Structures are given as C-alpha cells and as structure tokens.
C-alpha cells in the first residue's frame, strides 16, 4: 500500500484550487455576467450553456483516451497540467471581457471564448482528476487525497465567489465590464502559479497490470481516435435527444428521445454480446458500460451536479433580487466555502467510521432536506439563510469528495474483473457527466427564470421572477439530491470487497 506524504496531498490540492478559480467562477457568475453585464438574453444564454457543456463533455472522453496513451518522463497525466495552464488562464480572462461590438457579434464571441475556456479546462482537469488514480493504490489514501483535493477546490472557489463582487466593484469603479476583466487578470495569474505547484510536487506511481505485459500493447493514438469518432454517435445522439426534450418539453421531443434511447440500448447490447470481435477502443467503452459500480457512480455524478449546480447557479440572482443585496452574495459564498473545506477534510475520517456508501447516503439526504428549508425563509431573515445554507453545504461538500475517490474504485474493479484499466477514460467519463450535469443545471436555472419572464436588462421583469428564484434555491435542486440518495443504495462495492480487490491487484502486479 502506497502512503502519500502531506506535502504531496497539499500540492495536489493546489491544482483544484487553481481549477476552481475557473470552475466555481464560471458556474457561479458567468450566467449573471452574460445576462446583466454582457447583455445576452436569458434564453440565448441557456442554449449557450447547454450546447457548450454537452460538447465539452464529449471532449472529456477524447482527452481521457489521449492521456491514457501519453508516455513521457513526467508520466501520463502531469505533463498535460503543465502544457494547458497558460491557455486556461488566457481564456479565463477572455470569457469575462466585454468587447464593444454588436449584440449578434457578442453572442458569437461568447460561444468562441466559452468553448475555448471549457476546452482548456478539459485538457487540464481530466488528466488532473486521473492523476489521483495513479498516485496511490490505497483506497483509504485516495479518499484522504480526495478530501485534500476538494478542500483546495473550495478554497479556490472561496477566492472567486467570496471576493469577486467586491473586486469587480473595486477595479470597475462603477464599470462592471472593466471590473470583471481586471479581476480575471488577477485570478489568472494566481491560477498559473498554483498549477505549477501541483506539477512539481506530485508523482505518478501506479502502473496498470496490462502495461506490464509485453504481449499486450495499446493501439496508436491516431488509430484509437479514429475508432472513437465512429463510436461518437452512440454518445452524441442520445445527448442531443435529451437536450431537445429538456429544452422543448413537447410530445415530438419526447418521442424522439424514447426512440433514440431504445436504439442506443440495442446497439450497445449487440456490441456487448460480440465483445470478442471489437476494437480496443470499443472494448474500452464496453468495459465502461458493463461496470456496474461505475454506471451507478455516473448516474450519481450527474444528479449531484444538478443538485449543486442549480444551487450555486441561482445564488447570485437570489441575493441580488430576492434578498436585495448583491455584495452579500460574496459573503454567503465565503461562509459556504469555509464550511465546505471543513466538510471535505472530515470526509475521510467519517468514511472510515461509517463506510463510504453509508456516508454518501447520509450526506445526500441531509443536504437535500436542509436545502428544502429555503422555501420558507423570508427575504429579511439573513441569519436563517446563512445558517441553513452553511449546514446544507457541510454535507454537500462530502459528495464530490466521495464521488471522485470512488471512481478510482471503479477503475480497480475494471482491472480486477477484466485485466484492463483505462484510468484516464474512467475519470474523463466522470468529469463528462459532471460537466453535462453542470450544463443542464446552468440551463435549467435560466430556463426557469425565462419561464417566469426574467430579462436581465429589464427591471420590470424582476418581481414576477422571484418565486422562480426561491424554487431554484429549495425544492428543485433537492429533488435531484433525493434521487441520487436512492441510487447510491444500489452501489455494489462494500468495504470488504474493495479490500479484497486491492490485495489481489497488488499480488497480480508483483507476480508479473
């Protein structure tokens, strides 16, 4: 069993602190920036979020395959952290820059810069996430490492969400467009520094069993990517059908969705039954869709991203219009993220006592119940808003911590069952559903607000949209949390089975 030194866990955590200067900033403020500063209609912004996030999710799969086939003196995953960092900082600034152009040109600019930002984030964060799976072979150490990671993530989020409104006001001095741009200069510089800390302080150690066999070699990357393009319709067409049903919500979209899902099921079932005669890339995909622990985690990842994404996506609107104090949103974010750091750091200790599956269920139920309470809080009772929000966030912080540590278990399960392990692909598929969930969450916030008639540049529409903001802070996200809690009950890997798999995998690797 490989134990990690504290300095390496802290160094790894700095990478997600840097990434969340982008992720938390975009998730929490990009929507309100687009509608209230940049000048894009809420309905147009909703489509933008949905399209970009879904396309971004597909690039996650591709990036996972590229990372798995990367071999350098620095390892498979660490080099990508180094190479992608300058582009991530650049597009972070460009996404919050308001050029003096026409409204239609602004929409094009938003698509280009947001796609650039998400693509740079993918090239950086997919290898970063997969790095956790090869730093140690100890599942307890992975849980601890995941706790450090998300403590760092929440710290990065704290810096953006807690101080961004004040920094925008300071740098802009009444000009929000200029304030956002100069604030992002500051955050982009910090991002580059923290990513370098992660690159130089971490090390890859776990070598999959298949890579120790001289008789088994991977196909060239070019061939693998070409093979993957032939499989992409299996991923993209169902996503398109889901998106159409989500956005239009009519009979035709519903029929199209059902037909597509039935055809997809038949195609996948046929490939599974004929898995001895498929390509290596197809075999990787079959290993994913026949891995029960991974499938359950993917469903949970999507639902929990909806839960967290909706809550975070509406906070800026909730405080600006329902509470009536835009700057207080920053203070609220600080409170949430301080509590989140504590929640992430105690997850490993609580998981050892209750088991990860049981703790996951407890965290989901508690966070969802507390979130429902927002429906009954009047706008003038700020104390209750902070108490309830921080209480829910303590449990919500455990959710991503457990999710990413358990993805490593699913990769172990694949290697134990099939003798093959594609760590990058497993983690990229995990970030894929996180991003698609985030895309749907961001779009749902804007769709609900648009349904209530909200237009960011028209103050007369605010009053009618307030009930929608309250629903988005309470019952709507809680529904997804309760669904995820039901799904985790089906997770098959017990503590005893995980320990047995780990011991057997170590013995197999040492025997080769």
From TrEMBL:
Family per similarity comment: Belongs to the sodium:galactoside symporter (TC 2.A.2) family.
Keywords on record: Membrane, Transmembrane, Transmembrane helix
NCBIfam families: gph
Organism: Glaciecola petra
Domain of life: Bacteria
Protein's UniProt name: MFS transporter
InterPro entries xref list: MFS_2, MFS_trans_sf, Na/Gal_symport
Transmembrane segments: 12-32, 38-56, 77-96, 108-126, 147-168, 180-200, 232-248, 254-272, 293-319, 331-351, 358-377, 383-404, 425-452, 472-493
């Amino acid at each position: 069993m490989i134990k990690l030194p504290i300095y390496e866990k802290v160094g790894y955590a700095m990478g997600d602190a840097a990434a969340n200067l982008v992720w938390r900033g975009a998730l929490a403020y990009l929507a309100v920036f687009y509608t209230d500063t940049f000048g894009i209609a809420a309905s147009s912004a909703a489509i933008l979020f949905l399209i970009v996030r879904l396309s971004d999710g597909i690039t996650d799969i591709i990036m996972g395959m590229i990372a798995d086939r990367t071999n350098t003196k620095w390892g498979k995953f660490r080099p990508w952290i180094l190479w992608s960092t300058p582009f991530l900082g650049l597009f972070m600034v460009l996404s919050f820059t308001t050029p003096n152009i026409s409204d239609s040109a602004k929409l094009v600019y938003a698509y280009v810069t947001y796609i650039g930002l998400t693509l740079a984030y993918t090239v950086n964060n997919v290898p970063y996430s997969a790095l956790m799976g090869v730093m140690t072979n100890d599942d307890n150490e992975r849980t601890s490492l995941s706790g450090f990671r998300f403590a760092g993530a929440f710290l990065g989020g704290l810096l953006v969400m807690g101080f961004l409104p004040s920094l925008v006001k300071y740098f802009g001095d009444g000009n929000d467009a200029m304030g956002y741009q100069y604030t992002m200069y500051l955050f982009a510089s910090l991002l580059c520094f923290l990513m370098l800390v992660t690159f130089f302080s971490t090390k890859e150690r776990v070598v999959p069993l298949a890579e120790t066999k001289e008789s088994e070699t991977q196909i060239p990357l070019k061939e693998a990517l070409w093979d993957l393009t032939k499989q992409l319709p299996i991923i993209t067409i169902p996503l398109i059908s889901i998106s159409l049903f989500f956005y239009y919500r009519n009979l035709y979209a519903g029929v199209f969705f059902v037909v597509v899902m039935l055809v997809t099921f038949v195609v996948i079932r046929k490939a599974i039954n004929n898995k001895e005669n498929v390509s290596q890339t197809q075999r990787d995909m079959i290993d994913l869709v026949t891995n029960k622990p991974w499938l359950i985690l993917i469903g949970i990842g999507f639902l929990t991203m909806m839960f967290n994404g909706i809550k975070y996506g509406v906070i800026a609107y909730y405080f600006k219009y329902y509470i009536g104090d835009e700057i207080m949103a920053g203070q609220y974010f600080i409170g949430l993220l301080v509590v989140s750091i504590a929640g992430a750091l105690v997850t490993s200790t609580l998981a050892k006592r209750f088991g990860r599956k049981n703790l996951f269920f407890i965290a989901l139920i508690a966070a969802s119940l507390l979130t429902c309470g927002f429906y009954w809080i009047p706008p003038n009772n700020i104390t209750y808003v902070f108490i309830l929000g921080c209480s829910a966030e303590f449990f919500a912080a455990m959710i991503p911590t457990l999710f990413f540590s358990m993805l490593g278990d699913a990769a172990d399960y694949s290697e134990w069952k099939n003798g093959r392990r594609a760590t990058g692909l497993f983690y990229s598929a995990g970030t894929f559903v996180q991003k698609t969930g985030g895309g749907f969450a961001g779009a749902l916030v804007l769709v609900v607000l648009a349904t209530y008639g909200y237009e960011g540049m028209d103050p007369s529409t605010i009053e009618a949209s307030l009930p929608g903001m309250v629903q988005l802070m309470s019952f709507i996200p809680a529904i997804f949390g309760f669904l995820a809690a039901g799904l985790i009950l089906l997770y098959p890997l017990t503590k005893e089975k995980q320990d047995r798999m780990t011991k057997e995998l170590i013995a197999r690797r040492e025997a080769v």
